[in-house]
């Protein structure tokens, strides 16, 4: 299962945890993915989609 949004194409980002002594350790900032079911009028069935919350907002505007 890949951690990529199917609508916007967003994926994980690299970053650093910085401690009080300013020691940097690498971390991964994952996308806030939600699995949703969307009704397809052309196929006349439900489709499961993994969408980021930003992609979900754009879907709400369209639908």
UniProtKB/TrEMBL annotation:
Sorted UniProt keywords: Plastid, Ribonucleoprotein, Ribosomal protein
A Pfam family that the UniProt record links to this protein: Ribosomal_L28
Domain of life: Eukaryota
Molecular-function annotations in GO: structural constituent of ribosome
SUPFAM superfamilies: L28p-like
Example of a GO biological process term: translation
InterPro entries, alphabetized: Ribosomal_bL28 (IPR026569), Ribosomal_bL28/bL31-like_sf (IPR034704), Ribosomal_bL28_bact-type (IPR001383), Ribosomal_bL28_sf (IPR037147)
Tagged with keyword Ribosomal protein: yes
Annotated GO CC locations: ribonucleoprotein complex; ribosome
Family as reported in the entry's similarity comment: Belongs to the bacterial ribosomal protein bL28 family.
NCBIfam families per record: L28 (TIGR00009)
Name used for this protein in its record: Large ribosomal subunit protein bL28c
Organism whose genome encodes this protein: Gelidium elegans (Red alga)
The encoding gene: rpl28
